[in-house]
Structure formats: structure tokens, C-alpha cells
Amino acid sequence: MAASQTPTPAQELRGAGLRVTAARVALLEIVRAGDHPGVEAIASGVRDRIGHISLQAVYDALHALTGAGLLRRLEPAGGQPRFERRVGDNHHHIVCRSCGAVADVDCAVGEAPCLTPSDEHGFSIDEAEVIYWGLCPDCSTARSSWAP
Ligand SMILES: [Zn+2]
Ligand SMILES: [Zn+2]
Description:
Layout: H1 9-15, H2 22-33, H3 39-50, H4 55-67, E1 72-74, E2 82-84, E3 92-96, E4 102-105, E5 131-134, H5 137-146
Parallel strand pairs: 3-5
Antiparallel strand pairs: 1-2, 3-4
The protein binds zinc ion (2 copies).
């Protein structure tokens, strides 16, 4: 993934036909810098940069950016929604059951959709989203050191 010409957040917003606002620019930068941050982490990052913004405004901005394809939203079962900048490549995620850490996992087979169901039910499938669950290295180390 050569980042030869990474567009700025403002360019990305314009390219997606969205109005450029300080909150949206800050939000894109925070999600890019973070590791699948949740809404609370994003909101506090935006506040650090531009001052007060309501949680509802952050939700609205996330909704607009996700709808425009600039962000991808993932929702681990029972967890908070997370956001990321890596969109449109059908990659999967691995989630820690203990601390909620999320890591990217490339497509299992190599091209989208990378998993073929045993029964497609007549659907034309273009994406497969897989969440692998387990314990991250930190949590499995902690767990084994608790063992008697
Ligand atoms: Zn963990
Ligand atoms: Zn990801």
C-alpha cells in the first residue's frame, strides 16, 4: 500500500461531495490515526482539536462520512460500533473478547467476497464480513499468569 499521494481530509470530503467542516476534518484525522476507535474516543479527540461538540453532532458526522464511503463502521456483537478509514477492500477483523482490541485481517482467500456460503439463497453476494473472536496477546498473557 504505497501512500504516494494520500489525499487530505478536505480533499476527500470534497471528492465525496460533502461540505468541509472542521469537525469532519478532525474526525477523519482521528479515525485515521486511531485503531478502530469507538464513538466516545472519537468525540473526545474531536473536542481536543476543535472544542465543544455534542455527541449527537459526532454521530451525525460519522453517519454522513460512513454513508459517503469515507469510513467503515463495524459492529462487533455486544460491543460499541467502531470506525476505520480502510474501506472497500473486504478485509476482516479479529476482536479480543476481553479488552475489545480490534485488528485488521486481510481477506481469507484474496478477493471479495472471499468466503462462499454453502447456500447463497439466490443472493448475489459482493462482500463477506468476518469477525474472528479470541484473546489479544496482552490478555492471553494476563490470563495465563493468573493461572494457579
Ligand atoms: Zn485484549
Ligand atoms: Zn479494519
